[in-house]
Write a structure and sequence with these properties.
redox-active center; 13 helices; flavin adenine dinucleotide binding; 22 strands; oxidoreductase; 480 residues; Enolase-like, domain 1; FAD/NAD(P)-binding domain; single chain; NAD; alpha/beta; seven-stranded mixed β-sheet; nucleotide-binding; five-stranded parallel β-sheet
């Protein structure tokens, strides 16, 4: 095997493996370096955090537990009688692991089909676009490339008051591996990961307390939707404590003793398990030699321009190690863009049209700007909303909570923000992404025919409501 490549990608997560496949499809001789090793201590595992211990396994657990929740609490309303419904945690975990194995194996197959060379080991960028790979035995080998793409991803943040012990105090990865349902579960952080993992175990019977330092719930989300979601989560039994600062966590007699301070003063709580989900940080440890020419900020993020170029010629960086949201699909789009730019094309990622999703029930999804952002920018806008409570399909599915909200420019009617809290919000938001990608106005959606009965009719009605013309809900009176 030649040690010289057109492209070497460091990292085989959603950014890296997609970049490698696209580069190979474009006729570039491509290699992808990945350090992740399977439980056997030998085999290479592709897919990164997302496929192995992130997006995919968490969604597998969310799906199972949602069905369990429905069987226990909602089936009776449908006229379905159930008795003695139980959860087999071991079987649930086995299914999750099976899905992960199938998908990660699929990437290996795609590498082979597209001619990507897979290199197992820890990749480190040296000066002059050389990549040093250290294998599991500590042996090193150096490869050369015309272009190097850094896609090393991120890892959970550990906080001093609650250091991980791998058993009682765990990160998001550990929370996907519980062998039994904890009676009392604490979650530090009411963000996407904290809410999703808290929901999984609450549905299975855990008493869940979510401790969040910020005063506002989901501050990045349009607050009309955030408040609606908060009410739904509280109804489901999640005890969400806002404005609470963690001061300590100590394991005694197999219990985690937590102390924190909120508006009422010092508080104490005891949990069987504590999940720390306060965010993630770039995984750039040992990835760059000092003379590589790549610069990072004090938090470990690699400096890049809007085309993902670093300050070192021929070196690019994508995904969680660069600015922007830490989202798998954002990383993948950057990977495609970089591969195509290396091949001489000139695509650009539209960072204004990257969707965000929280896979709770109801789901929360959005793209574009929130009402709060537009107010702070002094922009004039119109808003149209439509509740799922007035949607026949949502009522039939016993999922009639939440709403669709569309925000449009007051002068041009161009859609500036598209927000959904409710059933299948993760799928519905794609309609907003497509509309915004093509510069659609709210009227464009209002003039589009949507199938009946569908959840998507709520998009149609929200678009109609922007101009005060919704059919199936009373419209706001226009100011004279």
């Amino acid at each position: 095997m030649s040690d010289k490549f057109d492209v070497i990608v460091i990292g085989a997560g959603p950014g890296g493996y997609v970049a490698a496949i696209k580069a190979a499809q474009l006729g570039l001789k491509t290699a992808c370096v990945e350090t992740w090793t399977g439980n056997d201590g030998k085999s290479q595992v592709l897919g990164g955090t997302c496929l192995n211990v992130g997006c995919i396994p968490s969604k597998a657990l969310l799906e199972v537990t949602h069905k369990f929740e429905e069987a226990n609490h909602d089936f009776e309303g449908f006229g379905i009688k159930t008795k003695g419904v139980e959860i087999d945690v071991a079987k649930m975990m086995e299914r999750k692991d099976g899905i992960v194995k199938q998908l990660t194996g699929g990437i290996a197959g795609l590498f082979k089909a597209n001619g990507v060379t897979s290199i197992h080991g820890h990749g480190k960028l040296l000066a002059g676009r050389k990549v040093e790979v250290t294998d599991k035995d500590g042996k090193t080998k150096t490869y050369e490339a015309d272009n190097v793409i850094i896609a090393t991803g991120s890892r959970p943040i550990e906080i001093p008051p609650a250091p991980f012990d791998g058993e009682h105090i765990v990160d998001s990865e550990g929370a996907l591996e519980f062998s039994e349902v904890p009676k009392r579960l604490g979650v530090i952080g009411a963000g996407v990961i904290g809410l999703e993992l808290g929901s999984v175990w609450a549905r299975l019977g855990s008493e869940v307390t979510v401790i969040e330092a910020q005063d506002s719930f989901l501050p990045a989300v349009d607050q009309q939707l955030a408040k609606d979601a908060l009410k739904q989560f509280q109804k489901q039994g999640l005890n969400i404590v806002m404005g609470a600062r963690m001061t300590g966590a100590e394991v005694k007699r197999k219990l985690v003793n937590v102390t924190y301070e909120d508006g009422k003063g010092k508080q104490e709580a005891k949990f069987d398990k504590l999940i720390v989900a306060v965010g993630r940080r770039p995984y750039t440890d040992g990835a760059l030699a000092e003379d590589s020419g790549v610069k990072m900020d004090e938090r470990g993020f690699i400096f890049v321009d809007d085309k993902c170029k670093t300050e070192a010629p021929g070196v690019w960086a994508i995904g969680d190690v660069v600015r922007g949201p830490m989202l798998a699909h954002k990383a993948s789009e950057e990977g495609v863009m970089v591969a195509e730019r290396i091949a001489g094309h000139k695509p650009q990622v539209n960072y204004d049209c990257i969707p965000n999703v929280i896979y709770t029930f109801p789901e929360v999804a959005w793209v574009g700007k929130t009402e709060e952002q537009l107010k702070s920018e002094g922009e004039e806008y119109n808003v149209g909303t439509f509740p799922f409570a007035a949607n026949g399909r949502a009522m039939a599915a016993n999922a009639a909570s939440g709403l669709v909200k569309i925000i449009a420019d007051a002068k041009t009617d161009r859609i500036l923000g598209f927000h959904v809290v409710g059933p299948q919000a993760s799928e519905i938001v794609a309609q907003g992404v497509i509309a915004m990608e093509f510069g659609s106005s709210a009227e464009d959606l209002a003039l589009t025919c949507f199938a009946h009965p569908t959840l998507s009719e709520s998009v149609h009605e929200a678009a109609l409501a922007v101009a005060g013309g919704a059919i199936h809900v009373a419209n706001r009176r226009k100011k004279k």
